[in-house]
Amino acid sequence: IDRGTLMIDVAGAVVGQVNGLAVYSMGDYMFGKPSRITVSTSMGRAGIINIEREADMSGSTHNKGVLILSGYLRKKYAQDKPLSMSASIAFEQSYSGVDGDSASSTEIYALLSSISGVPLRQDLAVTGSVNQNGEVQAIGGVNHKIEGFYDCCRKEGLAGKQGVMIPESNVKDLMLRKDVVEAVKKKKFHIYAVKTIDEGIEILTGKKAGEAKPDGAYPKGTINGLVNEKLKELAEGLKKFGDEEKKEGKKGSGRKSKSSKK
Question: How far is CA 129 from the centre of its chain?
Answer without folding.
Answer: 11
